[in-house]
Amino acid sequence: MSxxxxxxxxxxxxxxxxxxxxxxVAFGFALESAGLGxxxxxxGQFTLTDLTVFxxxxxxxxxxxxxxxxxxxxxxxxxxxxxxxxxxVVPQLVGGLSFxxxxxxxxxxxxxxxxxxxxxxxxxxxxxxxxxxxVLGAGLAVDPGDALYDGTARxxxxxxxxxxxxxxxxxxxxxxxxxxxxxxxAWIERQR
Amino acid sequence: MIRRALAVLAGxxxxxxxxxxxxxxxxxxIAPIEPLELAEWIRDRKEGLRVIDLRGxxxxxxxxxxxxxxxxxxxxxxxxxxxxxxxxxxxxAASETAEGAAVLREAGHRNVLHLRGGVPAxxxxxxxxxxxxxxxxxxxxxxxxxxxxSRYFGGTPRKGAPQTMxxxxxxxxx
Lengths: 192, 174
What we know:
The structure holds two protein chains of two kinds. By secondary structure, chain A is mainly alpha-helical. In chain A, 69% of the residues lie in helices and 3% in strands. Chain A contains ten helices and two strands, in the order ααααβααααβαα. In chain A, helix 2 (13-33) crosses helix 6, helix 4 (52-73) packs antiparallel against helix 10 and helix 6 packs across helix 7. The radius of gyration of chain A is 19 Å and the shape is globular. Chain A starts with 7 loop residues before the first helix and ends with a helix. The termini of chain B are far apart. In chain B, the strands form two sheets. Chain B has a five-stranded parallel β-sheet. In chain B, strands 6-7 form a two-stranded parallel sheet.
């Protein structure tokens, strides 16, 4: 039997939800341990004084990417059963811009706002409320069938496909990009 | 020191990835759809849904998914499919699905899915769903969902999971 083991169609919705709990706790623990519950640390990303967010997030991305690639190669992970979110170019650009503005203003992103709220910080709770209100508002305001939403739908669209690369070459390129980025981030932090 | 070792390890794994054979595109680029979800889409006459059976004309008529259009790759290239149609491919092999998806991608189609498990999964999960002995409440709820779809498509829900699946009666569909 190969992963993912928490597939609701295999273990049932209830078991999948139960498995999500320890995974979520581990995620929150990792974020808090990395210091990402601190708004000044997150805001430092935008003033180039503290690039912890970049380093933590890119490390997580590369770890997950290499893990998924090699586990699949070894037959331990069935990538067909791993959900790949669909691409909607314009809506995701608009969403990314809104996300970035909110991130810069509050010093928190969705995950870290949960962490901050869990540690009793009022600003974390405020960002979470804003987040939920934004999701609700967008859901009510945007019709999934309208031109803005569907006009640039690309379905499941991956980096190897977009760049006409093999999966392995894309993995290597992103890993190289990450290592260069880490070296660059360390250099920038030393200059400050 | 540990950071440097991890960076070297990541670099080595990344380089090795580039040297290995690429994974089939189908395994990362084509999202699967579950047979029951596809059955609901067909029953509900989902707008823009196109089900394409890449097994071609050779597959028996009573072994087709209702509303599925039999096509080979050439006819798929020539098919009039709107850009935003949701195309579900079913085939007898992953390589067929990957080739079909590549044809559609070249033509600019992005909403391409493949039926998880193909026609055998459709038969087992939609036409002849089975409720095992001592099923949990979740399994009973899933069986209830599948039973309605099974009857709609002319199948027979089974309790106690017999060894063989009966042949389907005349399927209903769109």
